[in-house]
Amino acid sequence: MNHPAPTVQQQQAIDAIMDFVRGDNDCFILRGSVGTGKTTLIAHLLLLLQRQKVVFHVRDAC
After folding, report:
1. Which of 14, 17, 37, 57 measures 20 to 30 Å from 24, CA to CA?
2. Which residues contact residue 7 at a Cβ distance below 8 angstroms, ignoring those fewer than 6 apart?
3. pLDDT by residue (tens digit) across 6-61?
4. Among 4, 10, 12, 5, which Cα is nearest to 38's?
5. Could you tell me which of 52, 16, 19 has the C-alpha nearest to residue 31?
6. By CB neighbour count within 10 A (0-12 exposed, 13-18 middle, 19+ buried), where does 42 fall?
7. pTM of the entire predicted model
8. Residue 9: which residues within 8 A CB-CB, separation 6 or more?
9. 17 near 10, Cβ under 8 Å?
C-alpha cells in the first residue's frame, strides 16, 4: 500500500498521537473536516506503529 507523505499538519498530529500512545491517557479523539487527511494520517500512524513494534489497542469509542 503506497500512501503520500504526510503534510506538516498531519505530521504534527502524528507526533501528538505518538505522545499519546507513549503516555498515560486513555482516549485520543481525532477530528477534522471532510478531506483533511484523517484516514491518510491513521494509515501513516499504523505503519509507523508497526515499524516500531508498538503494541496498541484500538477502540471505537472513548
Report:
1. 37
2. 37
3. 788 878 887 888 888 788 887 888 888 998 888 888 887 788 878 888 777 777 76
4. 10
5. 16
6. middle
7. 0.58
8. 37
9. no
For 19, the grid coordinates are 505522545
Give the per-residue pLDDT at 34.
93
Residue carrying the nine cell digits 477534522: 32
Structural domain boundaries of the chain? 8-51
Say how many CA atoms lie within 13 Å of 18 toward its Cβ.
Answer: 18
In 3D, which of 26, 31, 12, 14 has the Cα closest to residue 57? 26
Dist CA 20 CA 1 (whole Å): 25
